[in-house]
Amino acid sequence: IPVDPFDLVIFGGTGDLARRKILPALFRRFCAGQMGTDARVVGAARTEMDSAAYREFAREAITEFDDNEECAAESLDGFLEQLSYITLDARGDTGWQAMKAAMRDGPIQAFYFSVGPGLFGDLAERLHAYEIAGPDSRIVVEKPFGRDLASAQALNKGLAKHFDESQIYRIDHYLGKETVQNLMAIRFGNTLFEPLWNAQYVDHIQITVAESVGVGTRGGYYDKSGAMRDMMQNHLMQLLCLIAMEPPAKFDPAAVRDEKLKVIRALEPVDAEDVVRGQYEGTGELPGYRNQVENRDTRTESFVALKARIGNWRWAGTPFYIRTGKRLRARASEIAVVFKDAPHSIFGADAGRHRNILTIRLQPNEGIELGVTIKEPGPGGMRLVDVPLDMSFAEALGPDSADFPDAYERLIMDVVRGDQTLFMRGDEVEAAWAWVDPIIDAWQEVESDPILYASGSSGPDDALRLMHKDGRRWREIK
Ligand code: BG6
Fold this sequence. Notes:
single chain; 2 domains; 15 strands; binds 6-O-phosphono-beta-D-glucopyranose; carbohydrate metabolism; NADP; glucose metabolism
Protein backbone atom coordinates (compact mmCIF):
# COMPACT_ATOMS: atom_id res chain seq x y z
CA ILE A 1 0.00 0.00 0.00
CA PRO A 2 1.62 3.29 -1.01
CA VAL A 3 2.11 5.83 1.74
CA ASP A 4 1.01 9.45 1.36
CA PRO A 5 3.34 11.84 -0.48
CA PHE A 6 6.22 13.01 1.69
CA ASP A 7 9.27 15.26 1.78
CA LEU A 8 12.08 13.60 3.71
CA VAL A 9 15.19 15.59 4.56
CA ILE A 10 18.23 13.56 5.61
CA PHE A 11 20.61 15.68 7.67
CA GLY A 12 23.93 13.90 7.48
CA GLY A 13 22.85 12.88 3.98
CA THR A 14 26.40 12.01 2.92
CA GLY A 15 27.16 10.03 6.10
CA ASP A 16 27.69 6.36 6.68
CA LEU A 17 24.17 5.58 7.87
CA ALA A 18 22.60 7.34 4.88
CA ARG A 19 24.85 5.35 2.57
CA ARG A 20 24.47 1.94 4.18
CA LYS A 21 20.94 2.01 5.48
CA ILE A 22 18.69 4.98 4.77
CA LEU A 23 19.11 5.37 1.00
CA PRO A 24 19.04 1.61 0.26
CA ALA A 25 15.96 1.25 2.49
CA LEU A 26 14.14 4.04 0.66
CA PHE A 27 15.04 2.50 -2.67
CA ARG A 28 13.61 -0.87 -1.65
CA ARG A 29 10.36 0.75 -0.52
CA PHE A 30 10.29 2.56 -3.87
CA CYS A 31 10.71 -0.75 -5.71
CA ALA A 32 7.98 -2.30 -3.59
CA GLY A 33 5.67 0.51 -4.69
CA GLN A 34 5.29 1.88 -1.19
CA MET A 35 7.22 5.09 -1.72
CA GLY A 36 5.34 6.82 -4.52
CA THR A 37 6.74 8.88 -7.37
CA ASP A 38 5.32 11.91 -5.58
CA ALA A 39 7.76 11.56 -2.65
CA ARG A 40 10.91 13.71 -2.43
CA VAL A 41 14.14 13.00 -0.59
CA VAL A 42 16.53 15.85 0.16
CA GLY A 43 20.07 15.08 1.31
CA ALA A 44 21.62 17.83 3.41
CA ALA A 45 25.16 18.07 4.72
CA ARG A 46 28.15 20.38 4.89
CA THR A 47 29.87 18.82 1.89
CA GLU A 48 29.59 21.04 -1.18
CA MET A 49 27.93 19.21 -4.04
CA ASP A 50 24.94 19.64 -6.33
CA SER A 51 21.92 17.39 -6.70
CA ALA A 52 23.40 15.58 -9.68
CA ALA A 53 26.47 14.62 -7.64
CA TYR A 54 24.24 13.49 -4.76
CA ARG A 55 22.29 11.24 -7.11
CA GLU A 56 25.59 9.66 -8.13
CA PHE A 57 26.51 9.26 -4.46
CA ALA A 58 23.15 7.56 -3.85
CA ARG A 59 23.55 5.37 -6.94
CA GLU A 60 26.88 4.08 -5.67
CA ALA A 61 25.55 3.55 -2.15
CA ILE A 62 22.56 1.58 -3.39
CA THR A 63 24.61 -0.46 -5.80
CA GLU A 64 26.95 -1.39 -2.97
CA PHE A 65 24.49 -1.95 -0.14
CA ASP A 66 21.21 -3.04 -1.65
CA ASP A 67 21.19 -6.81 -1.89
CA ASN A 68 17.62 -7.19 -3.09
CA GLU A 69 17.94 -8.48 -6.61
CA GLU A 70 14.29 -7.95 -7.33
CA CYS A 71 14.88 -4.22 -7.39
CA ALA A 72 15.54 -3.75 -11.06
CA ALA A 73 18.38 -1.49 -12.06
CA GLU A 74 16.00 0.49 -14.29
CA SER A 75 13.98 1.45 -11.20
CA LEU A 76 17.06 3.10 -9.82
CA ASP A 77 16.99 5.99 -12.30
CA GLY A 78 13.37 6.67 -11.42
CA PHE A 79 14.18 6.66 -7.72
CA LEU A 80 17.18 8.94 -8.14
CA GLU A 81 15.06 11.54 -9.93
CA GLN A 82 13.26 12.09 -6.65
CA LEU A 83 16.48 12.99 -4.84
CA SER A 84 18.08 16.41 -4.44
CA TYR A 85 20.77 17.94 -2.28
CA ILE A 86 21.34 21.09 -0.28
CA THR A 87 24.69 22.16 1.14
CA LEU A 88 23.92 23.19 4.66
CA ASP A 89 25.62 24.33 7.83
CA ALA A 90 23.85 22.99 10.91
CA ARG A 91 25.42 25.68 13.09
CA GLY A 92 25.33 28.59 10.62
CA ASP A 93 23.04 30.18 8.04
CA THR A 94 24.16 28.44 4.87
CA GLY A 95 21.49 26.43 3.13
CA TRP A 96 18.50 27.05 5.36
CA GLN A 97 16.66 29.41 3.03
CA ALA A 98 17.23 26.93 0.21
CA MET A 99 15.74 24.22 2.38
CA LYS A 100 12.71 26.31 3.16
CA ALA A 101 12.20 26.88 -0.55
CA ALA A 102 12.58 23.14 -1.28
CA MET A 103 9.81 22.03 1.06
CA ARG A 104 6.43 21.68 -0.59
CA ASP A 105 3.11 22.66 0.88
CA GLY A 106 0.90 19.66 1.48
CA PRO A 107 3.05 16.52 1.68
CA ILE A 108 4.10 15.02 5.01
CA GLN A 109 7.39 16.51 6.23
CA ALA A 110 9.99 14.43 7.99
CA PHE A 111 13.49 15.45 9.06
CA TYR A 112 15.95 12.65 9.72
CA PHE A 113 18.76 13.72 12.11
CA SER A 114 21.38 11.23 10.94
CA VAL A 115 24.08 13.17 12.77
CA GLY A 116 25.76 13.04 16.18
CA PRO A 117 23.60 14.06 19.15
CA GLY A 118 25.73 17.23 19.50
CA LEU A 119 23.83 18.68 16.54
CA PHE A 120 20.27 17.70 17.50
CA GLY A 121 19.62 20.99 19.32
CA ASP A 122 21.08 23.14 16.52
CA LEU A 123 18.98 21.43 13.87
CA ALA A 124 15.78 21.70 15.90
CA GLU A 125 16.50 25.35 16.58
CA ARG A 126 17.02 26.26 12.93
CA LEU A 127 14.10 24.23 11.61
CA HIS A 128 12.03 26.37 13.90
CA ALA A 129 13.78 29.73 13.38
CA TYR A 130 13.58 29.49 9.58
CA GLU A 131 9.96 28.39 9.86
CA ILE A 132 10.65 25.20 7.95
CA ALA A 133 9.08 22.74 10.38
CA GLY A 134 5.51 23.13 11.59
CA PRO A 135 3.32 21.37 14.13
CA ASP A 136 2.74 18.43 11.79
CA SER A 137 6.41 17.87 10.88
CA ARG A 138 8.20 14.83 12.23
CA ILE A 139 11.79 14.47 13.30
CA VAL A 140 13.71 11.22 13.44
CA VAL A 141 16.71 10.91 15.73
CA GLU A 142 19.33 8.20 15.77
CA LYS A 143 21.09 6.59 18.66
CA PRO A 144 23.18 7.19 20.67
CA PHE A 145 20.58 9.29 22.44
CA GLY A 146 23.06 10.79 24.88
CA ARG A 147 25.70 8.96 26.87
CA ASP A 148 24.08 9.07 30.30
CA LEU A 149 20.93 10.25 32.02
CA ALA A 150 21.99 13.90 32.26
CA SER A 151 22.89 14.20 28.56
CA ALA A 152 19.72 12.37 27.47
CA GLN A 153 17.64 14.73 29.60
CA ALA A 154 19.40 17.71 28.00
CA LEU A 155 18.69 16.32 24.51
CA ASN A 156 15.04 15.72 25.33
CA LYS A 157 14.77 19.25 26.67
CA GLY A 158 16.43 20.74 23.59
CA LEU A 159 14.06 18.92 21.24
CA ALA A 160 11.02 19.66 23.38
CA LYS A 161 11.59 23.40 22.96
CA HIS A 162 10.40 23.16 19.37
CA PHE A 163 8.76 19.76 18.95
CA ASP A 164 6.03 17.93 20.75
CA GLU A 165 6.76 14.34 21.87
CA SER A 166 4.24 13.15 19.26
CA GLN A 167 6.51 14.58 16.54
CA ILE A 168 9.73 12.89 17.76
CA TYR A 169 10.73 9.44 16.46
CA ARG A 170 13.72 8.02 18.37
CA ILE A 171 15.12 5.09 16.43
CA ASP A 172 16.19 1.79 17.93
CA HIS A 173 16.61 -0.27 14.81
CA TYR A 174 16.11 -3.53 16.75
CA LEU A 175 12.44 -2.61 17.10
CA GLY A 176 12.19 -2.55 13.31
CA LYS A 177 13.45 -6.12 12.95
CA GLU A 178 10.71 -8.54 11.90
CA THR A 179 11.70 -11.11 14.50
CA VAL A 180 11.68 -8.55 17.29
CA GLN A 181 8.15 -7.47 16.39
CA ASN A 182 7.33 -11.13 16.29
CA LEU A 183 8.07 -11.38 20.01
CA MET A 184 4.84 -9.52 20.60
CA ALA A 185 2.93 -11.73 18.15
CA ILE A 186 4.19 -14.89 19.86
CA ARG A 187 3.31 -13.66 23.32
CA PHE A 188 0.03 -11.95 22.66
CA GLY A 189 -1.28 -13.80 19.61
CA ASN A 190 -1.28 -17.23 21.28
CA THR A 191 -3.03 -18.51 24.36
CA LEU A 192 -0.41 -21.16 24.88
CA PHE A 193 2.46 -19.18 26.34
CA GLU A 194 1.07 -16.28 28.33
CA PRO A 195 -0.41 -18.30 31.25
CA LEU A 196 3.07 -19.77 31.85
CA TRP A 197 4.94 -16.51 31.28
CA ASN A 198 5.80 -15.68 34.89
CA ALA A 199 8.02 -16.53 37.82
CA GLN A 200 5.87 -19.49 38.81
CA TYR A 201 6.74 -21.41 35.64
CA VAL A 202 9.83 -19.73 34.22
CA ASP A 203 13.15 -20.59 35.85
CA HIS A 204 15.12 -17.92 34.00
CA ILE A 205 15.42 -16.14 30.68
CA GLN A 206 18.58 -15.70 28.59
CA ILE A 207 19.03 -12.95 26.06
CA THR A 208 22.08 -13.15 23.80
CA VAL A 209 23.09 -10.77 21.03
CA ALA A 210 26.42 -12.10 19.79
CA GLU A 211 28.32 -10.52 16.93
CA SER A 212 31.22 -12.13 15.14
CA VAL A 213 32.56 -8.86 13.76
CA GLY A 214 34.92 -6.63 15.70
CA VAL A 215 34.82 -2.91 16.03
CA GLY A 216 36.17 -2.46 12.50
CA THR A 217 36.65 1.14 11.45
CA ARG A 218 34.24 2.49 14.06
CA GLY A 219 36.87 2.57 16.83
CA GLY A 220 36.62 6.36 17.21
CA TYR A 221 32.94 6.23 18.13
CA TYR A 222 32.92 2.86 19.85
CA ASP A 223 35.79 3.49 22.22
CA LYS A 224 33.81 6.32 23.79
CA SER A 225 30.75 4.09 24.18
CA GLY A 226 31.47 0.42 24.78
CA ALA A 227 29.01 -2.46 24.70
CA MET A 228 27.01 -1.12 27.62
CA ARG A 229 26.12 2.16 25.91
CA ASP A 230 26.21 0.89 22.34
CA MET A 231 24.02 -2.21 22.76
CA MET A 232 22.79 -2.86 26.30
CA GLN A 233 21.17 0.50 27.09
CA ASN A 234 19.09 0.34 23.93
CA HIS A 235 18.79 -2.87 21.88
CA LEU A 236 19.05 -5.43 24.68
CA MET A 237 16.89 -3.46 27.06
CA GLN A 238 14.24 -3.18 24.37
CA LEU A 239 14.30 -6.97 23.95
CA LEU A 240 14.03 -7.36 27.70
CA CYS A 241 11.00 -5.04 27.73
CA LEU A 242 9.19 -6.93 24.99
CA ILE A 243 9.80 -10.26 26.72
CA ALA A 244 8.89 -9.08 30.20
CA MET A 245 6.13 -6.50 29.77
CA GLU A 246 2.49 -6.93 30.70
CA PRO A 247 0.08 -7.30 27.78
CA PRO A 248 -0.71 -3.81 26.47
CA ALA A 249 -4.46 -3.31 25.98
CA LYS A 250 -3.85 -2.37 22.36
CA PHE A 251 -1.02 -2.43 19.87
CA ASP A 252 -0.71 1.32 19.87
CA PRO A 253 2.15 3.66 20.77
CA ALA A 254 0.92 4.84 24.15
CA ALA A 255 -0.14 1.40 25.40
CA VAL A 256 3.01 -0.42 24.25
CA ARG A 257 5.42 2.23 25.47
CA ASP A 258 3.68 2.58 28.84
CA GLU A 259 4.16 -1.16 29.44
CA LYS A 260 7.81 -1.10 28.38
CA LEU A 261 8.50 1.83 30.67
CA LYS A 262 7.00 -0.07 33.61
CA VAL A 263 9.48 -2.90 33.04
CA ILE A 264 12.47 -0.56 32.98
CA ARG A 265 11.29 1.20 36.12
CA ALA A 266 10.86 -2.14 37.90
CA LEU A 267 14.46 -3.21 37.23
CA GLU A 268 16.46 -3.66 40.42
CA PRO A 269 19.91 -2.07 40.62
CA VAL A 270 22.54 -4.56 39.41
CA ASP A 271 25.02 -5.89 41.97
CA ALA A 272 28.68 -5.42 41.01
CA GLU A 273 29.29 -9.18 41.17
CA ASP A 274 26.47 -9.74 38.67
CA VAL A 275 28.17 -7.84 35.83
CA VAL A 276 31.06 -9.06 33.68
CA ARG A 277 32.78 -6.86 31.15
CA GLY A 278 35.24 -8.11 28.61
CA GLN A 279 37.46 -6.95 25.79
CA TYR A 280 38.58 -9.10 22.86
CA GLU A 281 42.17 -10.03 22.26
CA GLY A 282 43.64 -10.53 18.84
CA THR A 283 44.08 -14.03 17.49
CA GLY A 284 46.18 -15.02 14.51
CA GLU A 285 45.64 -12.37 11.84
CA LEU A 286 42.84 -10.65 13.74
CA PRO A 287 43.86 -7.54 15.66
CA GLY A 288 42.80 -7.17 19.29
CA TYR A 289 40.45 -4.41 20.36
CA ARG A 290 43.27 -2.29 21.73
CA ASN A 291 44.98 -2.28 18.38
CA GLN A 292 41.88 -1.01 16.65
CA VAL A 293 41.35 2.12 18.71
CA GLU A 294 43.52 5.14 19.35
CA ASN A 295 44.00 4.71 23.08
CA ARG A 296 46.13 1.57 23.54
CA ASP A 297 45.34 1.52 27.28
CA THR A 298 41.61 1.70 26.72
CA ARG A 299 39.30 0.15 29.31
CA THR A 300 36.29 0.17 27.03
CA GLU A 301 34.34 -3.09 27.02
CA SER A 302 33.46 -4.96 23.83
CA PHE A 303 31.46 -7.53 25.83
CA VAL A 304 29.08 -7.31 28.73
CA ALA A 305 27.05 -9.94 30.55
CA LEU A 306 24.80 -9.29 33.52
CA LYS A 307 22.04 -10.66 35.64
CA ALA A 308 18.97 -8.43 35.71
CA ARG A 309 16.13 -8.76 38.18
CA ILE A 310 12.69 -7.30 37.71
CA GLY A 311 11.00 -6.40 40.96
CA ASN A 312 7.33 -6.94 40.18
CA TRP A 313 4.69 -9.60 40.80
CA ARG A 314 5.20 -11.35 37.52
CA TRP A 315 8.95 -11.72 37.64
CA ALA A 316 10.19 -11.62 41.24
CA GLY A 317 12.61 -14.55 41.59
CA THR A 318 13.16 -15.15 37.85
CA PRO A 319 16.51 -13.75 36.72
CA PHE A 320 17.19 -12.45 33.23
CA TYR A 321 20.74 -13.18 32.05
CA ILE A 322 21.72 -10.82 29.28
CA ARG A 323 24.91 -10.73 27.23
CA THR A 324 26.25 -9.06 24.14
CA GLY A 325 29.67 -8.76 22.59
CA LYS A 326 31.75 -8.39 19.50
CA ARG A 327 34.18 -10.90 17.96
CA LEU A 328 32.36 -13.83 19.51
CA ARG A 329 32.15 -17.33 18.09
CA ALA A 330 29.21 -16.59 15.80
CA ARG A 331 26.63 -14.00 14.85
CA ALA A 332 23.72 -15.33 16.80
CA SER A 333 20.96 -13.49 18.61
CA GLU A 334 18.34 -15.37 20.53
CA ILE A 335 16.10 -15.32 23.54
CA ALA A 336 15.65 -18.52 25.53
CA VAL A 337 12.82 -18.93 28.02
CA VAL A 338 13.83 -21.79 30.30
CA PHE A 339 10.84 -23.27 32.11
CA LYS A 340 10.99 -24.90 35.53
CA ASP A 341 11.19 -28.65 36.03
CA ALA A 342 7.92 -30.53 36.23
CA PRO A 343 6.86 -30.44 39.91
CA HIS A 344 7.07 -34.21 40.30
CA SER A 345 8.49 -36.93 38.12
CA ILE A 346 6.30 -40.01 37.89
CA PHE A 347 9.15 -41.76 36.08
CA GLY A 348 11.54 -41.76 39.03
CA ALA A 349 15.06 -40.45 39.41
CA ASP A 350 16.42 -42.54 36.52
CA ALA A 351 14.41 -40.51 34.04
CA GLY A 352 16.83 -37.64 34.59
CA ARG A 353 16.14 -33.95 34.52
CA HIS A 354 14.05 -32.47 31.72
CA ARG A 355 12.82 -29.00 31.09
CA ASN A 356 11.07 -27.15 28.35
CA ILE A 357 12.97 -24.35 26.66
CA LEU A 358 11.38 -21.96 24.22
CA THR A 359 14.04 -20.42 22.01
CA ILE A 360 13.28 -17.49 19.77
CA ARG A 361 16.02 -17.07 17.17
CA LEU A 362 16.20 -13.41 16.23
CA GLN A 363 19.01 -13.68 13.67
CA PRO A 364 20.21 -15.47 11.63
CA ASN A 365 18.10 -18.54 10.76
CA GLU A 366 15.07 -16.77 12.23
CA GLY A 367 12.59 -19.09 13.88
CA ILE A 368 11.23 -20.62 17.05
CA GLU A 369 12.14 -23.84 18.77
CA LEU A 370 10.31 -25.48 21.64
CA GLY A 371 12.15 -28.22 23.46
CA VAL A 372 9.72 -30.92 24.58
CA THR A 373 10.28 -34.16 26.46
CA ILE A 374 9.05 -37.42 24.94
CA LYS A 375 9.56 -41.13 25.41
CA GLU A 376 12.60 -42.47 23.67
CA PRO A 377 11.20 -44.95 21.13
CA GLY A 378 12.04 -48.61 21.72
CA PRO A 379 11.47 -51.42 24.13
CA GLY A 380 13.87 -50.16 26.81
CA GLY A 381 11.21 -48.97 29.24
CA MET A 382 10.20 -45.40 29.92
CA ARG A 383 13.30 -43.48 28.99
CA LEU A 384 12.82 -39.78 28.37
CA VAL A 385 14.49 -37.69 25.74
CA ASP A 386 14.29 -33.99 24.82
CA VAL A 387 13.52 -33.15 21.21
CA PRO A 388 12.97 -29.83 19.45
CA LEU A 389 9.77 -28.71 17.82
CA ASP A 390 11.59 -26.50 15.40
CA MET A 391 10.12 -23.92 13.08
CA SER A 392 12.17 -21.72 10.84
CA PHE A 393 10.29 -18.89 9.20
CA ALA A 394 11.80 -19.74 5.85
CA GLU A 395 10.45 -23.32 6.00
CA ALA A 396 7.09 -22.52 7.52
CA LEU A 397 6.20 -19.50 5.46
CA GLY A 398 8.19 -20.06 2.27
CA PRO A 399 11.61 -18.77 1.25
CA ASP A 400 10.25 -15.30 0.43
CA SER A 401 9.28 -14.83 4.04
CA ALA A 402 12.94 -14.99 5.01
CA ASP A 403 13.56 -12.02 2.77
CA PHE A 404 12.48 -9.66 5.52
CA PRO A 405 12.35 -5.96 4.91
CA ASP A 406 15.28 -4.33 6.61
CA ALA A 407 14.49 -2.66 9.94
CA TYR A 408 15.06 0.78 8.41
CA GLU A 409 12.50 0.17 5.65
CA ARG A 410 9.84 -0.54 8.19
CA LEU A 411 10.78 2.30 10.52
CA ILE A 412 11.06 5.03 7.89
CA MET A 413 7.65 4.08 6.50
CA ASP A 414 6.25 4.15 10.05
CA VAL A 415 7.50 7.74 10.35
CA VAL A 416 5.63 8.65 7.17
CA ARG A 417 2.52 6.86 8.41
CA GLY A 418 2.81 8.64 11.75
CA ASP A 419 3.04 5.45 13.82
CA GLN A 420 5.29 5.79 16.88
CA THR A 421 4.73 2.28 18.29
CA LEU A 422 8.21 1.04 17.35
CA PHE A 423 10.06 4.15 18.48
CA MET A 424 11.37 4.99 21.93
CA ARG A 425 9.63 7.61 23.97
CA GLY A 426 11.72 10.20 25.83
CA ASP A 427 10.86 8.88 29.28
CA GLU A 428 11.79 5.33 28.24
CA VAL A 429 15.26 6.38 27.10
CA GLU A 430 15.85 8.32 30.29
CA ALA A 431 14.72 5.40 32.48
CA ALA A 432 17.09 3.09 30.60
CA TRP A 433 20.02 5.41 31.27
CA ALA A 434 19.02 5.69 34.91
CA TRP A 435 19.44 1.91 35.20
CA VAL A 436 22.66 1.67 33.20
CA ASP A 437 24.51 4.72 34.61
CA PRO A 438 25.34 3.27 38.06
CA ILE A 439 26.87 0.19 36.43
CA ILE A 440 29.19 2.30 34.28
CA ASP A 441 29.94 4.65 37.18
CA ALA A 442 30.97 1.69 39.35
CA TRP A 443 33.45 0.53 36.68
CA GLN A 444 34.96 3.97 36.52
CA GLU A 445 35.27 4.18 40.27
CA VAL A 446 37.20 0.95 40.67
CA GLU A 447 39.38 1.68 37.63
CA SER A 448 39.66 -2.00 36.81
CA ASP A 449 40.43 -3.37 33.37
CA PRO A 450 37.92 -5.44 31.44
CA ILE A 451 38.67 -9.17 31.27
CA LEU A 452 40.34 -10.18 28.04
CA TYR A 453 38.73 -12.90 25.93
CA ALA A 454 39.92 -14.63 22.80
CA SER A 455 38.43 -13.58 19.48
CA GLY A 456 36.06 -16.30 18.31
CA SER A 457 35.25 -17.47 21.85
CA SER A 458 32.03 -17.13 23.87
CA GLY A 459 33.42 -14.23 25.87
CA PRO A 460 35.29 -14.27 29.18
CA ASP A 461 34.99 -17.32 31.44
CA ASP A 462 33.68 -15.06 34.17
CA ALA A 463 30.51 -14.70 32.13
CA LEU A 464 30.06 -18.47 32.41
CA ARG A 465 30.59 -18.26 36.15
CA LEU A 466 27.89 -15.59 36.38
CA MET A 467 25.41 -18.36 35.67
CA HIS A 468 27.30 -21.31 37.17
CA LYS A 469 27.15 -19.74 40.61
CA ASP A 470 23.35 -19.86 40.28
CA GLY A 471 23.47 -23.50 39.13
CA ARG A 472 22.59 -22.58 35.53
CA ARG A 473 24.42 -22.31 32.26
CA TRP A 474 24.40 -20.28 29.10
CA ARG A 475 23.21 -21.81 25.90
CA GLU A 476 25.97 -22.32 23.41
CA ILE A 477 26.64 -19.54 20.90
CA LYS A 478 26.62 -21.28 17.52
C1 BG6 B 1 24.33 -0.87 16.28
C2 BG6 B 1 25.62 -0.79 17.05
O1 BG6 B 1 23.34 -0.10 16.90
O2 BG6 B 1 23.91 -2.22 16.19
C3 BG6 B 1 26.67 -1.67 16.41
O3 BG6 B 1 26.06 0.55 17.11
C4 BG6 B 1 26.16 -3.08 16.22
O4 BG6 B 1 27.85 -1.69 17.19
C5 BG6 B 1 24.81 -3.07 15.52
O5 BG6 B 1 27.11 -3.79 15.44
C6 BG6 B 1 24.21 -4.45 15.46
O6 BG6 B 1 23.06 -4.43 14.66
P1 BG6 B 1 22.59 -5.70 13.82
O7 BG6 B 1 21.35 -5.22 13.14
O8 BG6 B 1 23.69 -6.03 12.89
O9 BG6 B 1 22.33 -6.79 14.82
